[in-house]
Specification:
Elements (H helix, E strand, L loop, with lengths): L4 H16 L6 E5 L1 H4 L8 E6 L8 H14 L5 E6 L1 H6 L5 H8 L1 E3 L6
Parallel strand pairs: 2-3
Antiparallel strand pairs: 1-2, 1-4
Helix pairs in contact: 1-3
Length: about 110
Amino acid sequence: MVLTDAELHEQLNRFFTYVQERLQVDTFILFGSYARGTPRDWSDVDVAVVSPEWEGISRQERMIMLGRWAWEAGAQWVEPVGYTPAELAQAYPGSFLGDIRDKGIYYRPRKDE
C-alpha cells in the first residue's frame, strides 16, 4: 500500500517527535522512493537521522535503536538509519550516503524556545 500524503506526514511527525525527545538531532533526511515521489506497494519510508550523538556507536546499534524507536512511536513504515554530521559531510558524491545528502529532502528539527 502506498501511503497518502497525510499518512506519510503522520508517520514522519510521530517518528521525528519521538526521536527528538531522546536524541540531539541536527537534521532528518527523507530519501528513497518517497523522496523521489515514486513509492510502490510495500515501499518503506527511508529516513536518515543525523546526530553528533552517534559518534562512537556502531551503525548496527544505531539501526537497532532507531528501528525500536520507530516501532515505539507507531511509525512502523519508517526505516531509519543514523549518521553523524561528519559522516554525512565526508560522503563521496554518488555513494549511498552521498545520494542521501545530495538528493534527500531535509527536515530541520524545531528548536525549543
